[in-house]
Amino acid sequence: MFYRPSEGHGLPHNPFNAIVTPRPIGWISTRGGDGSENLAPYSFFNAIAYVPPQVMFASTGAKSDRAGTKDSLANIRETGVFCVNVVAEAMIDAMNASSGGWPRETDEFELAGLARVECETIPCSRVAGAPAALECRASQIVQLAGAANFLVIAEVTGIHLRDDCLSEGIFDITRYNPVARLGYRDYTVVRDTFTLSRPDDR
User: Fold this and answer.
1) What is the pLDDT of residues 136-150, one digit of tens each?
2) Domain for residue 200, yes or no?
3) Residue pair 109/71 in contact by the 8 Å Cβ criterion
């Protein structure tokens, strides 16, 4: 099968998200200029550089009460900061609860029954108990082709690692099993890992 996205795929559901998988989930917490807080998962998310450490996420779609965007991006435009919380298997239900298109005044921490902790380097909350959290300061917001598509690029200014996820100096993902997004409404949990050495490793 071959199709041009501009002409449609002819399938019951768009396969694009099922092709680019698995995708890590950036569970983005933000605080608006008025002090209101928001928490939402984004699967168009990834790390993009080591030094300085940088991440990106893309916000697609819009809410009727946010004038062409979503709560996360609107808050970042006001404050310039956000926190990426890593989703553990034990947090799947809370993550899903926070994914709804709730009114802007909704506090998803409360909605999902999550405790919050103040970040160290930015004025923002993070998810208490998350296996890792990345405090971020936005460096670029890029409008992409298409309606309400925006790319946020940020420098990581602080990193939290849960102590029980460290094993002999290694951040061990099998101690919390990260959740990743597949296509459609499907997700996966990482439980198995393997190691490969590069041909030029010495």
Assistant:
1) 999 999 999 998 999
2) no
3) no
Between CA 178 and CA 78 the distance in angstroms is 30
Which CATH number do you get for residue 16? 2.30.110.10
CA 135 to chain centre: 12
CA 97 to chain centre: 15
Phi, psi of 94 (to 5 degrees): -65, -40
Reduced to 3 states (helix: H, G, I; strand: E, B; else coil), residue 11 is: coil
Q: CA 14 to CA 8: how far, in whole Å? A: 9
Q: At 163, is the secondary structure helix, strand, or coil?
A: helix
CB atoms within 10 A of CB 46: 12
Determine, yes or no, domain membership for 198. no
Prior bond of 5 cis (ω within 30°): no
Q: What total of structural domains would you count in the chain?
A: 1
Query: Is residue 21 a part of any domain in this protein?
Result: yes
Residue 195 lies in a domain: no
Q: Which tokens in the block code for residue 111?
A: 């909605």
pTM score above 0.85: yes
Question: What is the amino acid identity at position 199?
Answer: P
State how far the Cα of 151 lies from the Cα of 170, in Å rounded to an integer: 31
For the cut 90, the answer to whether the pLDDT of residue 182 exceeds it is yes
Pairing label, strands 26-31, 37-42: antiparallel
